[in-house]
Structures are given as structure tokens and as C-alpha cells.
Design a protein that fits this description.
The chain is of the alpha+beta class. Strands 1, 2, 3, 4, 5 and 14 form a six-stranded antiparallel beta sheet that branches. A four-stranded antiparallel beta sheet has the order 12-7-6-15, with no helix packed on it. Strands 11-8-13-16 form a four-stranded mixed beta sheet, with no helix packed on it. Keywords: Membrane, Transmembrane, Transmembrane helix.
Length: 251
């Protein structure tokens, strides 16, 4: 009798797990909620950032949606939503400077730059970068009486984005960037994956720069780099603001 009860419990557990997996990851997502419902959910969390206008609803992937917004204090922010049985907000951010949304941290093809730059900051164009500084090391091994030299060339990839028509945007990593990141990951083997420690490395990072309509570097970014954040799931990373000296090691 105990065996039958145990078997029934196992079967029930398997059915429950299978149903949960299907419901969360396989079933078709419901339509994204109307603006009124999204506003209500946005203002339940981090209520001091009171949202009063949703600028757009952008499907980044079938189960992932980017929602830029404006607040009652005239701040420009953004939020990320994921379908997990229902639409749930992962991040609410009143800081509009570029971030990197990693839908799947292990897969750079799922990475997207997202931003919502405040118009008062006078930004007409942004440059987005993937940078690795060149590196040289020399290691002497007493046992073999040999010196190992290791050189890693610098990498600098750039995408330029216009902000003339709208303050916000989403940009997936290009195929070239994805290829480079996967190549770096393979070069790290048998060390831990580069994606496990990518953002803990000082020599490898994403960056950005901002320019006004004359092509000069924007000097007034206060509205876009200050603000508050609510994080329900850690799915994004900072994109560093770069100085010209940060590019000098490559250019």
C-alpha cells in the first residue's frame, strides 16, 4: 500500500512539474496588458517614481517586453517585463542611461542595449562599445626553467545610434559582437566561462558615449544618469560612460 501511495505521489509530482514547465516556458504568452494595468503595476513598486505616461511597448522577444515611460516629475525611465505564467516586471528604472538587458546570461545573442535618454540632456547620438584592453603577462616556471609570454590584443567594437526621432530604444548585439564574445569564451577554456565573470573583469566591458547635434560630446547628462531603481530579477548590467582616455588604449 505504501508503495502505491509513493508511486502516486511521484506521478503527481511529475505531472505538476511538467505542467509548470509548460505553463511557464512553452505555452504562448497572453497579450501584454493594457497601459492602464501596466501603469498600476509600475506604481505599486517604487511608488516614489510615479509613472504617468507609457511611451511604448516594445517586444524584444516573444516573452520579453521593454516599456519606456515618463514620470510625474518629468523623468524618463524604463522597465523590463517577462512572461512567467503571467507578465511580471523584472526591473523598473528611472535612470535612462544605457543598460545591457541579458535575457539569457549564457547567450550573448540574447543581449540587448536599452535606453531612454532625457531630452534635457541634449543628446543627439550615442556610441555603444564592447571593449577589451590589450594585455601582456610574463610567467616564469621554476620547474621547467621556462618563461611563458601571454599577449591578448585589444578589442574595440562600436555601434552608433541616432536619438533624433525618439528618446528610447532597444538594440540587440550584432552578429559580429556575438561572434567575438563567443570566441573570447572559447579562448578562456578550460577556465570558467567568460559569461560567468564577464562583468567582474576590469579589462572587458561595455561602454557608451553621448554627443549633441553638433557632434561634440554632451556635457549635461544629469537627468539620464541619476534616479532610482527597483530590481525584481538581476537581468541587466551597467554600461560604463567612457572618457576619450578609455579609448586611447585601442585607437
Amino acid at each position: 500500500m505504501k508503495t502505491k501511495k509513493g508511486l502516486a505521489l511521484v506521478v503527481a509530482l511529475v505531472v505538476f512539474i511538467g505542467f509548470s514547465v509548460y505553463f511557464l516556458f512553452v505555452s504562448r504568452p497572453a497579450p501584454f496588458p493594457a497601459h492602464e494595468e501596466i501603469l498600476a503595476q509600475l506604481n505599486q513598486l517604487l511608488p516614489e517614481v510615479a509613472v504617468d505616461e507609457i511611451q511604448d511597448v516594445v517586444y524584444v522577444a516573444p516573452r520579453h517586453v521593454f516599456v519606456p515611460f515618463k514620470t510625474k516629475k518629468n523623468d524618463y525611465g524604463m522597465s523590463y517585463w517577462t512572461w512567467r505564467g503571467k507578465w511580471k516586471m523584472d526591473v523598473k528604472n528611472s535612470i535612462g542611461a544605457p543598460r545591457l538587458w541579458m535575457i539569457n546570461e549564457k547567450d550573448p545573442a540574447s543581449y540587448h542595449f536599452v535606453w531612454n535618454i532625457h531630452p534635457d540632456d541634449d543628446v543627439n547620438m550615442i556610441d555603444l562599445y564592447l571593449i577589451r584592453h590589450r594585455y601582456y603577462s610574463m610567467t616564469y616556471t621554476t620547474k621547467t626553467d621556462q618563461t611563458e609570454h601571454r599577449y591578448e590584443p585589444g578589442i574595440q567594437l562600436k555601434e552608433q545610434v541616432s536619438l533624433e526621432t525618439k528618446s528610447y530604444g532597444v538594440l540587440p548585439l550584432s552578429d559580429d559582437w556575438v561572434t567575438v564574445m563567443r570566441m573570447l569564451d572559447q579562448m578562456e577554456a578550460p577556465k570558467p566561462s567568460v559569461f560567468d565573470s564577464f562583468f567582474q573583469r576590469d579589462d572587458l566591458y561595455f561602454g557608451w558615449r553621448a554627443f549633441d547635434e553638433t557632434g561634440d560630446e554632451s556635457k549635461n547628462l544629469h537627468r539620464s544618469i541619476n534616479g532610482s531603481s527597483f530590481v525584481n530579477r538581476n537581468v541587466d548590467q551597467l554600461v560604463r560612460y567612457l572618457n576619450p582616455s578609455d579609448l586611447g588604449l585601442i585607437e
